[in-house]
Amino acid sequence: MEKQIDNHYRYLQQHFSYLIRQQALLPGEKLPSERDIGERFNLTRMTVRQGLQTLEAEGLIYRQNRRGWFVSPPAVVYNPARRQSFIEYVSSQGFEPSTDLIGVTVNPADARMAELMKVDKGARLLFLQRRRSIDGRPVLIEHIYINTALLPGIEKEDMSQSLTHLLRNKYGQAYHSMNLIFKSTALLEDAARELGAAAGLPGLHIERTNYDAAGRVLELDYEYWRHDAVTIQIDVNDA
Amino acid sequence: MEKQIDNHYRYLQQHFSYLIRQQALLPGEKLPSERDIGERFNLTRMTVRQGLQTLEAEGLIYRQNRRGWFVSPPAVVYNPARRQSFIEYVSSQGFEPSTDLIGVTVNPADARMAELMKVDKGARLLFLQRRRSIDGRPVLIEHIYINTALLPGIEKEDMSQSLTHLLRNKYGQAYHSMNLIFKSTALLEDAARELGAAAGLPGLHIERTNYDAAGRVLELDYEYWRHDAVTIQIDVNDA
DNA sequence: CAGTGGTCTAGACCACTCC
DNA sequence: GAGTGGTCTAGACCACTGT
């Protein structure tokens, strides 16, 4: 007993949704061009785009700026409580992670950052911008602020590697506790551009504060994810 | 040093974003109609709608079906680890929570539900559908499956009240552990309609499995949130 | 009823990617 | 240069809301 679809864009949505679920269209595969779809279904490009946008909102397809629409791969599961690095949890799920370093600078903390990281104004903070990809598809932009006073010499390390590993191996620091904030919102304009995505793309923001054993802020991490690329999972145990 | 905006819809976005941040437009306030905005800025309705949709994706405004666009109130912070009820965490943040019971049925478990809840196929499950609002604004639809065998007589209770309280007071059951899954995706069609929202609205899905002290599944809870209405916050402590 | 957003048409030009 | 999505125009009719 299927529901009657009287909207054209919903018809498109259901059509492609069906093809994707049946795996007639495979992850990473390119959809026909908007003009081709319009011709095939006798629809204006605007209507086609509306249909595609609803599929994008569902996380079934994604676009790369002016290159086309593609079927979304399955989302990676991110379980922050496990304290695994991006590299660990992505590869353990059978995907291929990679990291591009976009920028590294050392800046004095302004008033806002000083408060967030519980350091004095002017303290030296290492600021990293990285892009991380899964199977070659850019999925998140990361902005990281590191308290260099707690991790001397860290700015001389290779910053495209896993910070989790670096802290563990070189500094003997495991993350002790962390505070996590998740928010569903549009990707920031810069993040969208660096992901090769259209601005205003639905995104997931994660803000993570990592503390050392003494409760000091080791690192502040902002992650801007393509919303279809990740599922968050957490186990909460007895208090 | 402001960036030059050459897109019309981005200009609109920046304009209203500014007004909202300056509180020249207050939470809950209605925006002018799409046609009025178009006239004022000399833009087509399609372009106006595109601008408004990006503001919606940012979580700054929301719409109610055919009633208009409104400024979003601040998001409520949901911290699952605190095991507070919706009523508790909403009211403790200075908002007014309310709950509408949409449906109650008792059904035998099908194969899928039986597996998810670790019961025999055909076991009696209480199924609740509720709509929850903050300050009168519907923000989430909840689908709850309850294992009646563990909570005898529960189907005779008032199901618009807090389940957390009911379990605590009548059954002496506190939630022990829970498993949480968060996914940013479009609202389901039914959920969107019950929230008075357009279908395909960006949404946040939360899936929560609550276990009793013996590790049995007490309750399975699916929450479909308007994406601008909630921020998730979790503290993870030493393992 | 008038007013609102929801959907849709039939075009157009532009910016960028790919070859 | 051909093809793609990104943006935009100037309309139209419909479904639903409020009065």
Automatic annotation (TrEMBL), chains A, B:
Pfam families recorded: GntR, UTRA
Domain of life: Bacteria
UniProt-listed SMART domains: HTH_GNTR (SM00345), UTRA (SM00866)
Classification via InterPro entries: Bact_HTH_transcr_reg, Chorismate_lyase_/UTRA_dom_sf, Tscrpt_reg_HTH_GntR, Tscrpt_reg_PhnR, UTRA, WH-like_DNA-bd_sf, WH_DNA-bd_sf
Any one GO biological process: negative regulation of DNA-templated transcription
Domain HTH gntR-type: 6-74
GO molecular function ontology, one term from the record: DNA binding
Keywords linked to the UniProt accession: DNA-binding, Transcription, Transcription regulation
Protein name (record): Transcriptional regulator
